[in-house]
Every structure is written in C-alpha cells, then in structure tokens.
Amino acid sequence: MCSPGNRVHEHCTEFTSTSCVSCIDSTFLDEPNGLMKCAPCSSCDSGLGLRVKQPCKPESDDFCGPLEGFFCLLSNKDGCRIAQKHSSCKPGQYIRHTGTTSTDTVCSDCTDDTYSDGSLTACQSHTGCESLGLQEIKPGSPWSDSECGPQLSHSTARSSAVASMTVILAGAVYILVI
Predict the structure, then answer these.
(1) What is the CA radius of gyration of the chain?
(2) pLDDT at residue 151, as a whole number
(3) Which of 44, 141, 150, 160 is deepest in the core (most CB within 10 A)?
C-alpha cells in the first residue's frame, strides 16, 4: 500500500516491497491505496457557482466553495459541488435573512403603511405628508413611498379660482366686443 498523495510505481514481489511515487500534474489520492494511477483533480467550475477554497494537492482534491452571492446546494467531503445564486427580493418585499454560503436569502412582504424596493433589510414607513405640512399627491404602496407636494391653502385655492374666472370673463367680453 502507498500512503495518501502517492501511487504504486511497482507492486511488491516475493523479493521486493511496493515502490511508490508522488501524484503529480493536478492528480491526487486521498487514502492509502494500491493504485497505479492517481485521480485527476476536480475543477471548481464558476459556471456551477463555484470557486477554489483550497487548491488540489497530491493528497487532496480541490476544495470548492460557493462564489460571492451564491449558496451551496450540493456538498460532499471535498466541499461544495453545486451552488446557486441567492434569490433577490421583489419590490414590496424586504430581506428578512441575508443569504449565506449555505442558505438562500429569505424575503418577507411589507405590511400596512410600509414599503421596500426589494433591497432593504426592513420595510420603511410611508412618509406622512400631512405631518410635514404637505399634501399627499400620490399614496404610498408596498413598493414605493408616498409622494408629497406643497399644501394648497383655502386662500390660495380661492385666489386661483378668482384668477380663472377673471380670465374667462375677459375672454367673453372680448368675444362680445368683436
């Protein structure tokens, strides 16, 4: 038998013991063995969401981990074998639990008078336009804040109505005179 990281060069005979040589060129053997060939190292395929955490050595295969923004779906003794991109929360949802290397992102819906664009870790309260002395132009939704504008006072509204009536009367007089 040869030790991990080595393969049989020549098997033992009645008169000689087994001779072993080290695994080379991206090959490995991770257990005591009587093999004539080393196993090829795996690759941490970025297309499967993987990166090398520990490169292959004669006595161990590549140890793969998930890429940034991914979590491991399938693992074995040599690390992660398949990873998946973390889920994104949708507008109207917040990130309840940020994804890790072993778990996906968990999203939850915003409730009541709150909103999130999907990138927040908590829903935000809608702006209270009235409390700011403003008028609500557009109500908030689960995915957007309220839109506020200047408050129209009764005297401003009355002035606008008087100005409009003046323009209409002036137009009518102009038509009658012509």
Answers:
(1) 36
(2) 78
(3) 44
- Encode pLDDT of 110-133 as tens digits: 998 999 999 999 999 999 999 999
Q: Rounded CA gap, 156 and 150, in Å?
A: 11
**149 within 8 A of 135, measured Cβ to Cβ:** yes
Phi then psi dihedrals of residue 57, to 5 deg: -130, 165
Domains and CATH numbers, the chain: 6-85 (2.10.50.10), 93-146 (2.10.50.10)
Rounded to a whole number of angstroms, the distance between the first and last alpha carbons of the chain is: 117
Helices (DSSP H) in the chain: which residue ranges? 154-177
Does position 169 have pLDDT exceeding 80, yes or no?
Answer: no
> CA 65 to CA 50: how far, in whole Å?
6
For residue 58 the two structure tokens come to 């004669």
Query: What does the DSSP 8-state code read for residue 48?
Result: G
Nearest alpha-carbon partner for 48 in 90, 94, 9, 79: 79
CA nearest to 127, candidates 115, 117, 110: 115
